[in-house]
Records
---
Amino acid sequence: MIFNIDPSEIIARAREVRLLVLDVDGVLTAGELFLADSGEEIKAFSTLDGQGVKLLQDAGVQVAIISGRKSPLVARRAENLGISQLFQGREDKLNALTEMCSNSGLTPDMIAYVGDDLPDIKVMKAVRLSFAVENAHISVKETAHAQTQKCGGNGAVREVCDFILQAQDKYDDAIAHFL
């Protein structure tokens, strides 16, 4: 993890996170869109990221998705991971975050966000803790509190999940039944 502010401040912020919000294209995926001749869309998701999401949820931290695009594949992935808060086709991600807060009773100071491109910046500025993936746009990297060492779609989300679990002293318990 690369820190843009004091690491102890980032750890303190991570201790308070109750909800992790994820972008999809470029964060949960590598940002590439594969379109078949039939018009079918294909996305690849990292199983490492999926396991991280499950570990985080099992430790009591909720996970949600806000995406500017709408895709049945994303809905299926969210369902497979037990993510019930899914906002798709929402180009105004800050508005979606506000709606999410109204529905859940959470406030932005309880939320972490992972983004990669310009539509993510307003949300990143509004939440307690923001992360940019390694291959994010430079403006997103400059906005984020921290940056992953992994690229989107290739373990970046897992890196964030592990970081939050470690900051909250829940990591060892989260992985204990695997050891």
---
Amino acid sequence: MKAVILLSGGLDSSTVLYLAKSEGYDCYALSFDYQQRHRRELTAAKTIATAVGVTAHQVVSFDLSLWGGSALTDRQIDLPQDRALSAMSESIPVTYVPARNTIFLSFALAYAEAIAANRVYIGVNALDYSGYPDCRGDYIDAMRSVFRLGTKQGREGDPIEIITPLIDLKKTEIIQLGNKLGVPWQQTWSCYSGDEVPCGTCDSCLLRLAAFKELGLVDPAMVG
């Protein structure tokens, strides 16, 4: 059995990759160099893919910085820093990249059909404080229709499934799952900055730190 796994190198996508591997799938990891703010996450993705033993790891390159629209693709837009967790749920933040998951899932669909895979795993999470529109259940349901209607495989009655095992989990529950699966947290990268160690102040770092703290754990990636 083959599965395509969208892999950013972060906490969520790494957990999903380890889960797919534990479920017996031949894992084809897919990462993206879209001219994001830094390449540190791609280094992490490569390390994680090697650690778990994927069948293949592809990195697709394209340039979303051409039109910006996000703090992750436009360096003129400042990253949010030191925000209260409660404030993160008030509006969709400037770190949202327009239509990113639609683009990612389109590549994953093409890759999956080309290699005759029957699943695409993505680590979206609807409970994340950031509330990105392309991480929610109704969006995923719409993309499932695209997967069914927009492919030969789907029209012939064998649609490629979108698997979202983390969509209704709290960050603490994702960490607990990753711990059971043996995800090497110290090798993952969630920070929006690209320094040698995570900044500890961007939204992504704060969410991750809070979850580890709630579990009474120290995040290994934060130990410089």
---
Amino acid sequence: MAQLFDIHPDNPQPRLLKQAVTLLMQGGVLAVPTDSSYALVCHLDDKAAADAMRGIRGVDEKHHLTLLCRDLSELAHFARVDNRQYRLLKSCTPGAYTFILPASKEVPRRVSHPSRKTIGLRVPEHKVLNQLLELHGSALLATTLIAKGETDPLNDAQDIRQRFQHQLAAVVDAGPCPLQPTTVVDWSGDTPIVVREGAGDLQRLGLP
């Protein structure tokens, strides 16, 4: 049975989040709240955990996974970013935006897009998740928690725990999340292209 960590949304308990980090380091897949919806997360360098995460979602290696980063400098560590891109990223992080960018050599090939060599990256704005990332000490590999064969993300921690009790190591419950997905911007080419308009305001990006 997946563990359930009941975390205060405004004053997260470090003791419980450290236990969650231990499960990540042991190869577990966790369901965590974000500033858009619940997400599945695992340790970046754990192939078995990444495969398990894809299995829960029912997606293959061509589905873009995302790296949740602590800050913009960590994001830039995993992507090839020029000065123009960096300025735009700085203007809207943290926030509910996911950027598809060329992956740097720091990203394992097995988690980047196999043909495009790109990766999704974002800096979330969620107190509990941000503290989990700080305690983990590095980026987490993530994907939106959408059940296989469904289209809407899940939002209730108890329901998530019940449905995936044998596939998850733990569920972090900090209350419900917004159910609007991130705004996704593909900037792997010369100009940014809005792939999905979501919670992130396009005006903040200066895009139409």
---
Amino acid sequence: MITDKRKTEIIDNFLSWMIEHHHNDEDLYFTLKNVIGMTKEELNEFSIESLDEYYEKEQEKAGEETLETITAEDLVEQAVYLANAPDGVTAEDKSEAMLGMLGANIVDESVYEEPDDEKEVEESIVKEFAEFKNERTAGKTAEEVFDDAYEISVKTALRDAVCEGDYEDNVYKALLQNRGEILQKLYDAYQGTPSASVATNTDAESFVEWYAEKHLKAMTQTPIKMGM
């Protein structure tokens, strides 16, 4: 039975013979790497380091080819995404999604989904109300808070109406046009509409729907060109 020591000795002798009978390092590298199947680390164990550069060049080449493949896949994926992205996705979100595709080998199916307008409206108005409440109550006296009671009451009713109501998609799309100031825009419109009421949830929700419809019409109205 051959011992490990004897096996090592045989391999060492074999490698010495291979080195002596090959005309150049490139041929030797091809034989040891592609024919025998030896790795750089295995050759290093026998103190053969003269072929390291060939292994390293091959790794670099493989890396470049992989990068070229990934880049080509990225371009295809980005082109497909632009052709199929939902209409409601903003240019900023499209750019972010395309950047996220660089170097990725798994398609994120979520970038093809329609934006969740309802969720975005709720997130915006909840944040707006929290900022408004903090501004009007933090560090204020009871009298100062009382002076703002009307606005606080109306905005509370509007916030609840938006977050708890169940509206058509076009309502959320219209509200989302004022992202970041939805609550203030609703309040301003309420102030300018004497017939409006938020006395009940139904009243408040009706006002939100009326505002959204009015706002949507204003956005989609095409100006009439006057002839000379």
